[in-house]
């Protein structure tokens, strides 16, 4: 087990997901020579994105192995997995338990958002009134009111909060072990102002993405201690900074894209530590949490972050999550209640 | 063993009454003997788990590899069909074959028997995804709209209620995937025939292409045999908008498989709507443009006289194909589509229709899980050729226990060689002298089957004590086989030296940009295959050991084939397998072919890299564990546990390459010995085969003769020292 590591990377086809996979391969092969085999399990909702990412990673690995003559054997596998469909989540749990005896890293990277596009008028206003905040938080993104999934839950809540929690609960006994790391990728814009204790299921919010990420952070605060003390499972929370992400870049045209890049650079030069801009830098914190974080020295209560200097050199930032124990407990209770409900609904689902 | 169908309380036939019957050409027909008076064959007993009592060996685990190899072949001989000499098997896995048969019967208004209704439903329910209840392209795959919608429709057409829990579960999955509107092209076509979709929403496949001159690079006659065999009848059915009459049941199904009311759907807007989960091979822009143009052409330009002319051409070509294949067609999909065209053109009660329906049982295969449709009408020649060769290679050719098996198998192979040419004008090549994959009536030459059959025949007839068999096949006939084989080697600018599957590569690879199927890769033209090339080398090489006919040409052919093999080795030392799982399978064939030309671990970097790759995949228990997903990802994926078939393949590869690390070989052999049952058999494990990169298919006999070969070769390591 020591010399074979298995990493599950959800949404590996996104820009950040791809960089996480590449850095994992590179850094394990150079800094963790005790590891002989690494298996990266990529997930997506569709088959062709899986084959594309694996092809790309294979080619990357081959080049790396030729250049550095590293001995690490890298193999790949995949799961088709839709976080807005609980039967799909159960299928993922079933398939993982069938195929593997352990999971060492789970990067909860994929996330659901309702980004529909850019509100140009708002963007123009914000550019003149508060440009740094505008291009850090993305005040002009169009999300709309939270939509429901086919399971009747708020889709963003289900995908970003409940489904990952449910999956962890189902595979904990069989696949997670002391030393396994859950790496929760949140966002720099998960602000407590979006949280509504009366809408934990995020069915009414107009900021469903930010709210879901904040709830994820609350859930983390409510669970990491017990997971570690009882089962030795580590949970690390991070935000990857502001970078060109698959959540919005594909909705842009070339003019918008260049304007965005220019504004990002300007923010960085004005001292913003968040503007990593490129997913390679954004993957710093996830990889640090996976390979370097030491629970004896580093606190799991902290929110780590990918960060840069003005000139773009990589930094790791640390911040505290702004929360109350009461709200964290509320989210945990809500999610536990849902878990019970879905365990009951799905109790006869598997038939073989 | 309790199957899901048992847990649901579904009806079941009396499994003791099924019988597999064959004829001298290896036809496999399952009949239900109500009287139960006829004696079931050993294979029937084995397959239906009905009072099967093969000889048991003592001690339960073989004490050494030689004994284990013997037991494996002994078991195989026990289930050999006495009359035909074949080794029957369930060639299952794909889940898009029964839909053709069921649609054809429903469309042609040919009633289903109660027996087949019961057992087809059982099979489909038993092969549903254990968690989401849907079906995929194949039984080992994730659920897709294609698999789920067509199998759901089959269950409804065969009488299952929409409120049955299995259907409720499947329907829920289908709805979550967006409903049947997201079907890939073939699904849309089947549903259109059943009047559960509209032809206006299916991309065109105009049969007029067949009227173009053959020199046109995209003439269908240049396409891969399976693809053109399917598009010929599908083009007719599409052009003529053939569909079933609407009835109450079809109305009900219409309301069940879509997320919106049927009448509110404008199908013409959904030609390119394919669910993301199904879409393995997205359309190129070229194809989308071509489809738009062709749709316009079909709607506004194509005159009636041209439609009539094209229809006539199609039925003529179909009838030629029926003559070439004795009404089988190349495989069940084209068979079912052809049947519908013949029904429309010739009539349901015509003698032609009777001949078609006579062949239908050749594709249905009974299992304890229910009745499935095989990928082709069987694996007869392929399995027999290997079984005979490996029995010899393992050192048992002169063992009297196997004399009968070898003679029966040999005679089957001799009977199976083609001795007639195809109908003129049917876009087929010279075939007399070649061998098929399944049976002589099926009529399609395959390169590797021809090569392996020649090798098997030569091996057996040159074994002391079997010389009398030489009289049963003339030297001329073997020369004809070599002629066909040599004619299949590609010599053009591209892929020189390589062998493809059925024919030479006749069309440009750019045609793949027009691949409309969405679910299969590399289907438009023939492609070079490492495994077919390897087998061809083996056949040609073995021939030269016994006969100087065309020696120089054969030497050249082998040399260019070897160059091709070497050029296709991947940087990690592996070869990608297109017909078996995957790198282990192709690696075995490549190393065997290379070994016949003197390439071994000690003298070849190619072989060293290949051996290192394979050896690095050995698991702690000594076995090998390649998963089908390797084929999909083009990257080695480990299966959840070691399996005997990949272990046998790896062991064979390393032994023939003369790999020096003895411990690797020992552990693999011991794994095979330990996994063997006390009757010499092996249990079914992970799927062994694949086609078109995306579909898994079972080869149940592999576990018997490949393990036998591996153990036999391993035993000889020490025996020869």
Essential attributes:
heterodimer; A: 352 residues; alpha/beta; Rossmann fold; eight-stranded mixed beta sheet; 12 strands; 16% strand; globular; B: 721 residues; two-stranded antiparallel sheet; EC 1.1.1.270 (chain A); steroid biosynthesis (chain A)
Write the layout of secondary structure elements.
The complex is a heterodimer of chains A (352) and B (721).
Chain A: E1 4-9, H1 15-31, E2 37-44, H2 47-68, E3 73-80, H3 86-99, E4 105-108, E5 117-118, H4 120-129, H5 131-138, E6 141-142, H6 155-175, E7 181-185, H7 208-231, E8 234-239, E9 242-243, H8 254-269, E10 275-277, H9 279-282, H10 284-292, E11 303-308, E12 314-319, H11 325-345
Parallel strand pairs in A: 1-2, 1-4, 2-3, 4-7, 7-8, 8-11, 9-10
Antiparallel strand pairs in A: 5-6, 11-12
Helix pairs in contact in A: 1-2, 1-10, 3-6, 4-5, 5-8, 6-7, 7-11
Chain B: H1 4-7, E1 18-22, E2 28-32, H2 42-47, H3 65-79, H4 98-107, H5 114-126, H6 145-157, H7 165-176, H8 185-193, H9 225-239, H10 248-256, H11 285-301, H12 304-324, H13 332-346, H14 351-359, E3 364-367, E4 370-373, H15 380-393, H16 403-416, H17 447-461, H18 475-487, H19 530-544, H20 551-567, H21 583-596, H22 605-615, E5 624-626, H23 629-633, E6 638-643, H24 644-656, H25 662-675, E7 689-691, E8 695-697, H26 702-720
Helix pairs in contact in B: 3-26, 4-6, 4-13, 6-7, 6-8, 9-12, 9-13, 13-14, 15-16, 15-17, 15-26, 16-17, 17-18, 17-19, 19-20, 19-21, 21-24, 24-25, 24-26, 25-26
